Write a sequence for this structure.
């Protein structure tokens, strides 16, 4: 046995070496196992889940950029531009990449001198939206702002400038007709997805009121898109071929005559009220004004909420379209309807006379005429011409309220005219049924007396008044007022039943007298043109009936009406004018008509007595209208 | 001398290293995008680093490792001085002071120090031949690794500091450690864990949280992970090919030329390419293990395994990071990631191993 030191040491080393060998091997197996584990991991990512990630990579790289269409231009009937889309620039920040967003934000704020805090809080609010929705830093940026940002675009990795369109409105007083556009709200998006179509999304501009809202689908056009390859900051590297050009919105011609519209605004001279001028045969509206108004251009950009509050809480209600949304008692203008009802019912004839001593007693109550001394003996013609209250009190006392209601609704009162604007109101035509329904009470005969001079619960809109007078002008056809000339042919006026030509002739003749025979509408008289009209002075309270209205405070003064048409023979234009608290219709409203009509006939180069070529055309297109001569 | 070198130098090492270098250059080249100029000449710089690295590798090869071992204390000491110098005069790059500027180059002293630690550790353990490591021996190892580790933590560079740990642990495992000692070490580490946790920067903790739930921070550290997976995954079986790697070219993937270079390569070359890269690393690691087994002495063995543990650990952490198994702590993939110091230290370390292999028959 060799048991020397060396041998033992070698023996010991042998075991040590073996142990070392085992340890090295275990390191080897561990290393290889780990590498195999990673290999499996890559296999899973690249082969099993490869397709999924490939798709993700594509969507990461390619971005669909929406191309907004030009909104259709709105023109008046002569081609003057009322609303158009002008290029504007929007500066926005891409939120898709979080890394240095703060820095970009800070830089933009300092370059554009914007409030960083406000921007920050807006960014915070955007957290609820998808990342692809950019933060709009500045809408409608000025040329200088765009230039500053463009110059620094290299360092502003998240910032981009988007070309956009901003609606621009020309012409005074068109706000209530064309309305305005604005960014779709979340609520609108939810509610109106179906009617608006799936294409509409957040940030899109839609018509919010007026013609813009009514014909939104026509004006909107179709969005296009382009595919761009972007880097991780959303910066466009290059445009990919695929793209679809946006389709511009259709142009819309309105029946409006801008010169007339502006003349009407001038004539109203800041008075609170509304007026409509239209073609009595076709219903085409030439001018529609509501005062006070607002500037729709304010809404095209970013309307500050403070300004919105100011507008919506203004006691003079500038946002309300008084022509279709405000109702007033029609006052004496309603006498025309009473006359028609009475004639048709056979209660009176053309020659029926009453004596007006200035007041009369019916059912034990005294009713006053507006003229203190009275009109003396009056027939129907004189009663209308001089607007004698007593005559109509007597007629009213013989009429049934339901007969009045029947004729009123035949002429379109108490329901919307179906003009192409939203939010039109009904007005009120009282009847025995109406009173039962509203107050659960019987109708008193005495109430008919005030209705017969256009007072009482009766409420009409200026537009209803305009369609009413149009029906008388065109020989008894109920028209649908419209701004859309394309709809003219489709818009077939309906003949009012139970209305004789004889009755119409009597009424028309009387209306001519109102202006031309020294009647209450004399202030509207224009030499050489036969204007027909009827004044109205709508009392707010019964108490003011006999008082000197000149002495009343403004808010208690009567509403002034003047409705009519021109010329007597074959009318080409009809109108209704209302001045809130204007006082006497003949004093406050008739001169407005005169001023506007002067402009109208000057422009039309009206030749008495033949119709203009234009009016003949309009009449033919209207189809069924038979003009009376 | 050069003749001996050409005869004895290990071809496997050389070929594998060359292939990995090629992958690195190609990948860097393919991630260049005309719109982003900062990446434009990275591949050229990397080529330069490879040249410098190769030169230093050959230099390390030429001197017998026993001679290097004899000077290991001095080399180690110089490295520590460099680390301290970095802490004082270092350049701040993305939040840590890990760089010293030498002329046109930024040098990361913590990377270079690794080689000296491996060398000293091997020298130290070689002297303890045949003994089971006791407490004081362990304390010695802890000191050798701990001093630079602490200095690097001060920079702070958690990722690089971590790469020192496996060198120590694997060496201890190899040279045999008493169970009692291992237990003590574990206890110390458990006690230290909360201290380390408290000293971590918020973003580092966040990264650890993110690994548990990447959707937690889709735009921050989770973003890297998501983008990394998209890049790798979308490469599918055969990759998108050169210059078609949109995710990396369009900068969706951050740190793509350093920590996430494997994701870029995965996008370019697909699973086929990744498998090839992993195979190359497997060959490289196996060659190092083999070198340890055939080494003439324990010094050679410890050097080989020390280098292996350093390189393999970095590779594993990096791979685990890009596939989302491990937190993104910023450890480069040896020889593939862009970066001068990492390339140079890795090549020098490999030079040491090749040195050991070359001298395995010497007397």
């Amino acid at each position: 046995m060799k048991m020397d030191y060396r041998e033992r040491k070698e023996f010991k080393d042998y075991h040590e070496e073996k142990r070392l060998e085992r340890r090295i091997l275990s390191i080897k197996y561990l290393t290889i196992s780990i590498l195999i584990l990673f290999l499996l991991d890559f296999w899973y990512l690249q082969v099993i889940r490869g397709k999924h990630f490939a798709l993700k990579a594509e969507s990461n790289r390619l971005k669909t950029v929406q191309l907004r269409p030009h909104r259709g231009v709105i023109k008046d009937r002569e081609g003057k531009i009322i609303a158009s889309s002008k290029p504007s620039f929007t500066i926005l920040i891409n939120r898709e990449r979080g890394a240095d967003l703060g820095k970009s934000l800070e830089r933009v704020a300092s370059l554009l001198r914007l409030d960083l805090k406000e921007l920050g809080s807006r960014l915070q609010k955007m957290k609820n939206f998808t990342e692809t929705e950019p933060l709009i830093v500045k809408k409608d940026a000025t040329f200088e702002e765009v230039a500053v940002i463009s110059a620094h675009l290299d360092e502003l990795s998240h910032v981009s400038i988007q070309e956009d369109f901003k609606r621009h409105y020309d012409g005074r007083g068109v706000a209530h007709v064309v309305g305005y556009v604005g960014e779709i709200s979340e609520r609108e998006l939810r509610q109106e997805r179906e009617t608006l179509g799936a294409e509409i999304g957040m940030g899109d501009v839609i018509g919010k009121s007026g013609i813009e809202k009514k014909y939104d689908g026509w004006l909107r056009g179709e969005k296009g898109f382009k595919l761009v390859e972007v880097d991780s900051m959303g910066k466009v590297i290059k445009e990919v071929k695929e793209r679809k050009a946006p389709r511009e919105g259709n142009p819309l011609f309105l029946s409006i005559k801008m010169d007339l519209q502006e003349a009407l605004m001038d004539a109203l001279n800041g008075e609170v009220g509304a007026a409509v001028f239209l073609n009595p045969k076709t219903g085409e509206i030439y001018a529609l004004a509501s005062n006070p108004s607002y500037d729709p251009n304010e809404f095209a950009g970013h309307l500050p909420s403070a300004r919105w509050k100011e507008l919506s809480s203004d006691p003079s209600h500038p946002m309300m379209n008084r022509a279709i949304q405000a109702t007033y008692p029609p006052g004496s203008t309603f006498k025309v309807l009473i006359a028609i009802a009475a004639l048709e019912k056979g209660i009176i004839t053309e020659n029926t006379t009453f004596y007006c001593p200035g007041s009369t007693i019916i059912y034990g109550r005294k009713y006053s005429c507006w003229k203190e001394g009275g009109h003396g003996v009056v027939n129907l013609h004189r009663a209308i011409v001089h607007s004698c209250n007593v005559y109509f009190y007597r007629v009213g006392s013989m009429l049934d309220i339901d007969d009045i209601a029947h004729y009123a609704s035949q002429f379109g009162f108490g329901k919307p005219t179906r003009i192409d604007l939203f939010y039109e109101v009904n007005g009120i035509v009282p009847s025995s049924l109406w009173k039962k329904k509203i107050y659960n009470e019987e109708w008193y005969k005495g109430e008919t007396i005030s209705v017969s001079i256009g007072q009482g619960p009766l409420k009409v809109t200026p537009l209803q008044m305009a369609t009413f007078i149009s029906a008388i002008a065109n020989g008894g056809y109920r028209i649908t007022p419209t701004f859309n000339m394309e709809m003219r042919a489709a818009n077939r006026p309906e003949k009012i039943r139970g209305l004789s030509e004889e009755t119409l002739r009597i009424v028309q003749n009387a209306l001519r007298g109102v202006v031309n025979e020294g009647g209450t509408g004399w202030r509207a008289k224009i030499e050489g043109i036969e204007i027909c009209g009827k004044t109205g002075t709508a009392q707010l309270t019964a108490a003011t009936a006999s008082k000197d209205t000149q002495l009343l405070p403004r808010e208690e003064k009567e509403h002034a009406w003047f409705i009519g048409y021109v010329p007597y023979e074959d009318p080409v234009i009809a109108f209704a004018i209302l001045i809130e608290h204007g006082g006497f219709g003949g004093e406050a409203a008739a001169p407005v008509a005169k001023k506007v009509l002067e402009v109208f006939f000057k422009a039309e180069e009206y030749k008495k007595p033949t119709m203009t070529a234009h009016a003949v055309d309009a009449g033919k297109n209207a189809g069924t209208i038979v003009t009376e001569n | 001398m050069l003749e001996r070198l050409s005869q004895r130098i290990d071809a496997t090492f050389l070929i594998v290293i060359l292939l990995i270098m090629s992958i690195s250059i190609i990948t860097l080249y393919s991630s260049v995008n005309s719109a982003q100029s900062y990446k434009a000449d990275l591949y050229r710089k990397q080529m330069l680093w490879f040249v410098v690295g190769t030169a230093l590798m050959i230099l390390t090869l030429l001197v017998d490792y026993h001679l290097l071992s004899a000077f290991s204390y001095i080399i180690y000491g110089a490295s520590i001085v460099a680390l301290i110098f970095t802490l004082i005069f270092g350049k701040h790059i993305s939040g840590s002071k890990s760089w010293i500027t030498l002329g046109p180059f930024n040098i990361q002293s913590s990377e270079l120090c690794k080689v000296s630690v491996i060398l000293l550790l091997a020298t130290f353990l070689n002297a303890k031949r045949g003994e089971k490591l006791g407490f004081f021996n362990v304390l010695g190892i802890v000191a050798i690794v701990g001093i630079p580790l602490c200095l690097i933590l001060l920079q702070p560079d958690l990722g690089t500091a971590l790469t020192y740990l496996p060198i120590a642990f694997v060496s201890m495992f190899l040279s045999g450690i008493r169970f009692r000692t291992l237990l003590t070490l574990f206890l110390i580490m458990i006690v230290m864990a909360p201290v380390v946790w408290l000293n971590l920067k918020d973003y580092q903790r966040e990264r650890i949280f993110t690994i548990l739930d990447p959707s937690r921070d889709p735009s921050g550290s989770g973003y890297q992970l998501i983008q990394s997976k998209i890049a790798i995954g979308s490469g599918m079986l055969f990759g998108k090919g050169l210059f078609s790697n949109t995710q990396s070219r369009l900068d969706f993937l951050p740190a793509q030329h350093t920590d996430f270079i494997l994701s870029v390569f995965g996008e370019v070359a697909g699973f086929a390419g990744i498998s090839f890269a992993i195979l190359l690393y497997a060959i490289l690691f196996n060659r190092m293990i083999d070198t340890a087994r055939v080494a003439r002495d324990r010094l050679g063995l410890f050097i080989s395994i020390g280098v292996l543990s350093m390189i393999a650990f970095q590779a594993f952490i990096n791979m685990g990071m890009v596939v989302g198994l491990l937190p993104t702590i910023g450890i480069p993939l040896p020889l593939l990631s862009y970066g001068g110091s990492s390339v140079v230290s890795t090549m020098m370390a490999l030079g040491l191993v090749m040195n050991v292999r070359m001298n395995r028959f010497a007397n």
